[in-house]
Amino acid sequence: MQNALVISQIMLWLVVVVLGVVCLAMVRQIGVLYERMMPVGALVVDKGPAVGAVAPAFDLRDLYQREVRIGGRAADGRSTFLFFVSPTCPVCKKLLALLPSLQANEGANYRFVLASDGQRAEHEAFYRKAGLSAFPYILSQELGMAYHIGRLPYAVVIDSDGTVRSKGLVNNREHLESLFVANELKVASIQEYVARRDEQQAQA
């Protein structure tokens, strides 16, 4: 009887040790995968004003006839987050719902401006229904052409000096936030930052 208890205790301890080894191996593999995975940022499209170039300057009016200047030196010292959207774009609608929280987090450093083109009545209805009155909404075909907007949703960050700092197609909150991070890190995109980091690590 006592021998059976001893044997069962030994077997239990062996199971515990095996489980511990398995857990450690899994943790190590998760760490390796985490290191290998590249942070995904907004998809940079090589069209329109390049990152680092002076942004085209526009003096426009939004749907409420408020004056909105895009490009040039910002009087309030904030960067401009220019967000191209459409009432018929389902992804745009999903991302527009995030704007209030983004403004709460980034409003001290960024001015959010929405842009599109098309029939005014359709956009006014969309603007009211989405509750976007806190954000200037511009209708300008020339603005979209200046940035070569072909697909939506698309965002551009212009710094307070009027320079394009980051841009790209955005499909989720992480893509939006990657443009803020790229601006703060002074890189064109998160992908560029990761490539630089990997190059530095390889040279070290």
TrEMBL record:
Cellular location(s): Membrane
Membrane topology: Single-pass membrane protein
Superkingdom, natural source: Bacteria
SUPFAM superfamilies: Thioredoxin-like
Domain Thioredoxin residues, every copy: 49-192
InterPro entries: AhpC/TSA, MeN_DH_accessory, Thioredoxin-like_sf, Thioredoxin_domain
Pathway(s) the chain acts in: One-carbon metabolism; methylamine degradation
Major subcellular site: membrane
Presence of the UniProt keyword Membrane in the record: yes
Keywords: Membrane, Transmembrane, Transmembrane helix
Transmembrane portions of the chain: 6-27
Pfam families tied to this protein: AhpC-TSA
Function as written in the Swiss-Prot or TrEMBL entry: May be specifically involved in the processing, transport, and/or maturation of the MADH beta-subunit.
The protein, known as: Methylamine utilization protein MauD
Source organism per UniProt: Cupriavidus numazuensis
Organismal lineage: Bacteria, Pseudomonadati, Pseudomonadota, Betaproteobacteria, Burkholderiales
